[in-house]
Amino acid sequence: MEDNIFLKIIRKEIPKDFLYEDDEILAFNDIHPIAPVHVLIIPTKPIPSIAHMEENDAEIVGKMFWVAQKIARDLKISEKGYKLLIRVGRDGGQEVPHLHLHLIGGARLREDIRPA
After folding, report:
1. Radius of gyration of the chain from Cα atoms?
2. Active-site annotation holds for 52
3. CB within 10 Å: which end of the chain, N or C, has fewer?
4. Of the listed 38, 98, 100, 102, which one is catalytic?
5. Residue 5 in 3-state DSSP?
6. Cβ–Cβ under 8 Å, residues 20 and 27
7. Alpha-carbon distance 56 to 92, whole Å?
8. 40 - beta bridge partners?
């Protein structure tokens, strides 16, 4: 897998304030938020995208969603709702070749997924 910004964050080469951190998962605020809450949740294992995950990665991907739920509760956006988004590949809008889950909320969100 090619080096990327998320691998540098995992290696602590780029400092971040983590909203969640353990040996398998890191979560931090997106540097280009599209809503009041925009958190990125990444596995520390280098998985390029959902298209590249293997059967034994299912547990870590599930944990990413659990972490999103926990952060949403901690940030008090659970009651009103939020979106979870995983982009896959160029046509899916994935910019960094490392699996990541977007937790987006803190405001009423509209649906804006359509071909470019």
Report:
1. 14
2. no
3. C
4. 100
5. helix
6. yes
7. 24
8. 28, 102
- Two tokens at 51? 């298209």
Place of tokens 């909320």: 105
| CA 8/CA 4 separation, integer angstroms | 6
Taking a C-beta distance cutoff of 8 angstroms, is the pair 57, 49 a contact?
A: no
Q: Mind listing the pLDDT tens digit for each residue in 24-82?
A: 999 999 999 999 999 999 999 999 999 999 999 999 999 999 999 999 999 999 999 99
Could you give all domains of the chain from N- to C-terminal order, each with its CATH number?
Answer: 5-20+33-81+96-105 (3.30.428.10)
3-state DSSP of 32-99:
CCCCCEEEEEEECCCCCCHHHCCHHHHHHHHHHHHHHHHHHHHCCCCCCCEEEECCCCCCCCCCCCCC
pTM value? Answer: 0.94
